[in-house]
Amino acid sequence: MLEDLVAAIRKRRAILFAGAGVSMTVGLPSWGTLIEHIADELEIDLSEFKGTDLNYLTLAEYYRLKQGSIGPLRSWMDRNWTIPEDTLKASRVHELICRLDFPIVYTTNFDRNLETAFELHGKDYVKVVNAKDVARVREGVPQIVKYHGDFDDDGSIVIAETDYLERLSFESPLDIKFRSDALGKTILFIGYSMTDLNIRFLMHRLWKTWAGSGYERDRPQSYVFMLRPNPVEQAVLEQWGLQVLMERDCPPEEALETFLTKLSDAVESEEAGV
Length: 274
Fold this sequence. Notes:
By secondary structure, the protein is an alpha/beta fold. The chain is 49% helix and 11% strand. A seven-stranded parallel β-sheet has the order 3-4-2-1-5-6-7. Helix 1 packs across helix 14 and helix 3 packs parallel to helix 4 (56-67). The protein starts with a helix and ends with a helix.
């Protein structure tokens, strides 16, 4: 199943899309921790919302309404979501991402962990957060595209409900860039549960573009690595051209590292002609 993915990576025709699960491998707080912090700061009793569908998007929107801006929350996240360099240096997952040498890495994470990992492993990169950064892209230099924003720019961060709804038009500079980058490339999603509405809608739009082109059979295969089997998710994602990959006989906390190790070994073996 990995042969096409390995070949695409070797030919530098694959894009990595990294989600929160990648940062959580080095101890980053979960979204649940963010919800608890917002509730504490705004003196909200979360027990009153048991049984309701209260998520961090709605809470962040409420935070912005009450505090006037997302700035203080962004500052708290920046302080608490910064991982020590020695921890990142020891992260096998981040090392493997660097070793696989994708020409473009998209991430919905706000933190700087990917950038720091690249620096620690001696890899040059260009960070892309907005339209201005697109002009800084250099041939042959990997790009780290902060698809949902970056801690260095409050205005870029997509965290509250309004931010997500506005992005559903998919007409922002980064959305246009993604459509251009991804249309003829293999995409590998890691660190996602695939419940992110933006990502699901994005893949649906990409599938519709190919379906309307008359050349759907020529679309490169894309993949999503999932920690646990989910036949419902798998069926829906596969109709949009996403092949689900798993490490079935591996504990969930070790699965991503195991998968990336096998993938890296396969890419290096083919490059060496083994």
